[in-house]
DNA sequence: CCATTAGGTAAGGGTAATACACAACT
DNA sequence: GAGTTGTGTATTACCCTTACCTAATG
């Protein structure tokens, strides 16, 4: 697969070169920009935030009009059919009147033509991808499962992860588009078997679950009689009547109640005429213990956590439902009977430690039976799991964190004997431009919380441990500076003791194995290894920009001489967009002005004439008067004079690469978006050298390339080598 | 006729969120 | 003593797997 680097950005005096490590097939010039933050909403829409100050200075009111830009982007990890290419649409949107920023929404989509999304195309996609036999058979028996697992196939069980649901939804969406159907419930509930032939097989693609599991999941998802909520007393009364009348005909009862069959079935399991509620009496507890030991053939005092028919137990206990019996036994009585000890804080730490030692990739892989073995304060494996859940829930965004990240974070907190604070995540902003089927997964926004909202004032304690973002960095230093190089390969992003970061959903830090060191990773299980490793140790400190609390400014604390202008700093990254701003320590005080530096994005234009007509080419800058229209050529406004979104509408063939003077391939046709800062900032842009400050916006191809050893191959985005634009004069890019 | 496919039903173990009770603290 | 907070327990809506079944299809 050849990666297409079809977009580039550059500033007036600096270039970032980006080329692929794998095949070196493309080089992209990149712009240095400032004060920009990329985020992604749940649809995968990439949102590029720029401080309002810039926009305000640069643009008139009409800058708030959405300006679509189609940017070509080839993707390897997604199955796109020949002739269709993923595109990124860029829209500038006002966030709100109050917020001092605007956003540029970049949405990567694969816009398939009618023929592309035909059945044949889908079939082609599936044909070219490895389809797990697990997801293509209606297996139900343990034997089937064991057979496939023994053959090395993955067999996913348990609760569906967010990633799985995303895949499922994406598959359904694709299927619907291919058939021109709007509402999936048409297929699921209205079509005959014959009409929906291949539906479940199609949407199960990419999932390591048997068709039946997919089928059940889809039914539940789209059954509007499911998720109705709590039963009212009236419903309970009616349910009792219907139960007498229809017995176990759950479908009929459910239809009469407007509930799903499984819902009424489950509710009936909780109902028992003789059921007590509330605190268990000593007599009930005694009976429960007797019954459990009797039915399992065990002696009092023996631990029993499995192989109990709770329906039978409930029948014999008489006054409690099976759920009550199970809960009481597994969460209390079993432990009390076998002489368990009290759970302590040390046990909390121990639990985290033990789970970490298992080195499992997924929480579902934890064998709670084994883990709870010989642990006197554990009441049951099920109880231990709930204990883990209790600990986990102390991290506010635990649902958005990969298991490894969550565990590592908790581990470090435990090791440092810090309270389990909460990583607070801000809800991503709606894209504002619809939600096309996004295939990019990007979320890069770290915003500082106001210090007043930190742990001391809020029940939600903020994570206060230093945040480090190391990135796999390849530092390429000319020989004359190699003597200054050392082994430091980590850039740390140190939040400081008083600073708190608000981390948006789908963005998180993945521990690298080095304490306090993380990879930026998106919530979609895609890694964002981004290491900037200059030879000398470079400590990057996140600092707040007064003008935009949503941006990351990474300050290089190294002395300038360590990042002298004749060094190349190569950033390996695997993401469509990353901003790194390196600022010398001397510049720390001028963070505000830094936030107003220029932003220029050049992208190859993948725009047909029709596309181009849809593009709002408007001046954002103060001096850029009327909207730019077709024919605008790679215009880059220098300094602080304005911002523009430029597009060359003539370009129809995306991804063309041309040779540039420095021998690197560059895309000829560009889309340029530039926000311009103040005159002060212009000086920064012009004069800053390595270590002084630059933000690199790095469009990258969307393909999977293995990067670090400790990064799961499934979670790694395309790796690209960037040459610091600051070093453009050297013009040396390296991988 | 038989095997396979594509569901479909029911039972029951389980999870996760919330409600509740109560003790400790202010 | 009242109000608040933290913690453990109970409840319950919903999830998932398993076993068994059926009708259509090749």
UniProtKB/TrEMBL annotation:
A Gene Ontology molecular function term for this protein is: DNA-binding transcription factor activity, RNA polymerase II-specific
Q: Where is the HTH myb-type domain?
A: 272-337
| InterPro entries on file | DMTF1_DNA-bind_reg (IPR051651), DMTF1_N (IPR046775), Homeodomain-like_sf (IPR009057), Myb_dom (IPR017930), SANT/Myb (IPR001005)
Localization in the cell: Nucleus
Write down the superkingdom of origin. Eukaryota
Q: Which GO terms describe its cellular component?
A: nucleus
Q: Which residues form the Myb-like domain?
A: 272-333
| Pfam families per record | DMTF1_N (PF20588), Myb_DNA-binding (PF00249)
Check the record and name the SMART domains matching this protein: SANT
Protein name (database record): Cyclin-D-binding Myb-like transcription factor 1
Organism encoding this protein: Anguilla anguilla
